[in-house]
Amino acid sequence: MPADxxxxxxxxHGDTVVVADDVEGIRIITQERALAEVQAYCAALAPVNVLxxxxxxxxxxxxxxxx
Length: 67
What we know:
By secondary structure, the chain is α+β, with helices and mostly antiparallel strands.
């Protein structure tokens, strides 16, 4: 990737980038941006006012009590 393009998009030499193929075409994004997009997607799927980590812990406690 040309240096001027990397500098313009705050990508350092050696940074990992992701080639994303979607309905808009091919995008080259930073690994951090890809992670943020996945996190935002997953957050939109989660129920409102529910901590999934607490739900998981409660499920595991229930399983332990049954065993």
